[in-house]
Amino acid sequence: MSPLVLVVDDEHIVRTSVDSLLRSVGYRVKCYATPLDLCRDKEGLEEADCLILDVRLPFTSGLDFQKKLSEMGSEIPIVFVTGHGDIPMSVRAMKAGAVDFLPKPFRDQDMLDAVAAACLTRAVVKGETKIEAELQERFSSLTPRERQIMEMATSGLMNKQIAGELELSEITVKVHRGKIMRKMMAKTFADLVKMSEAIARNQGTSASR
Fold first, then answer.
1. Which of 38, 103, 150, 166 is most buried, by CB atoms within 10 Å?
2. H helix and E strand count, the chain
3. What region, left, alpha or beta, does residue 167 occupy, with left being phi > 0 and alpha being psi -120 to 50 degrees?
């Protein structure tokens, strides 16, 4: 399925122009006159690969809406457009994570390049999120004992040490480690260590939110 681009601009002629341009090269497009209209489209927000956002909008600014989206946990890459932009405004937008800042009237190719960059950024994020979800699913399939042994083994403890701490036989620890490797789909112990580190990072990120 082709990338979905959202366009928020209060000027009908701009929305129509951008919609036509993007559709001509294969993008799916949804247009909105205000940020409120976009917020009502939960499905669009979740599925979007790029957001083209006017800086000056009725009732709110594009920069304020960018901040709101961030607070909502949205990771949609944003391309700002404006007819009244200045350097401090563009710096603020870029520091907050915007992909590009285009002055009106913008060249078609500049818009296409900016959207392509935004969609590439989104594809990387979506890919990483999918991998993280799959990794967490594998980890969830482990028994409490297997998780405990995985944590101890990937922290550097030998089978004999793990067996002593858990009051198990060394052969039992080896059997558990074999099951852990299979369930986590780890080809090598080094892979398992990397998976353990990734899971710890993800859990730390979730706890901080």
1. 150
2. 10, 7
3. left
